[in-house]
Description:
Elements: E1 2-6, H1 10-19, E2 29-31, H2 45-62, E3 70-81, E4 84-86, H3 92-102, E5 106-116, E6 121-132, H4 137-145, E7 166-170, H5 173-177, H6 181-190
InterPro entries: ITPase-like_fam (IPR029001), Maf-like (IPR003697)
Site (Important for substrate specificity): 11, 77, 159
Enzyme class: hydrolase
Amino acid sequence: MNLVLASTSPRRKELLTHIGLGRAEFRFTQVAPDIDETPKAGELPRDYVQRLAAEKALAGLALCSGMSQPAVLGSDTIVVLENEILGKPVDEADAKRVLRALSGKAHTVMTAVALAKADQTSVRLVETLVRFCVLSDADIDAYVASQEPMDKAGSYGIQGLGGCFVESIEGSYSCVVGLPLVETRELLSEAGIR
């Protein structure tokens, strides 16, 4: 079976590499699926993130038509505060708005991971509770000026500079980064990929 990561995210690539535990035989390729990420009317956050992960995996599978036995991994991460999905910021002002909203509060990070093969698609959802410390305007301005939050759900990266805002987490750290390792390993193992 040929493993394919349906993502160009460097964070997901690095995390998936960890699953191989350094074994030379654990290899994968990457494709860049293009899907519409617009939430459907009335769609709950957990349904939305699972749908996107599955759609990314299936779109990736469609890009692998010439490959022998592809198994395509798709993933999506969202940040949810008070039942509102906080996606990637559209600009610096939006990033600042989101960071102000997260300041001093707990929010949920949801990451869904899907594995699509010719005959089936399996999805896992992982939720992690993240609590932010209180952020000053100077903290927010400096962080946004670093440009780190501009391509991240919820306008922060726990694995980078944004990690200094995280007071605590309850759940999977790798979920917050963008690919829950335990659940991804389970999906791969169930598919016979080790």
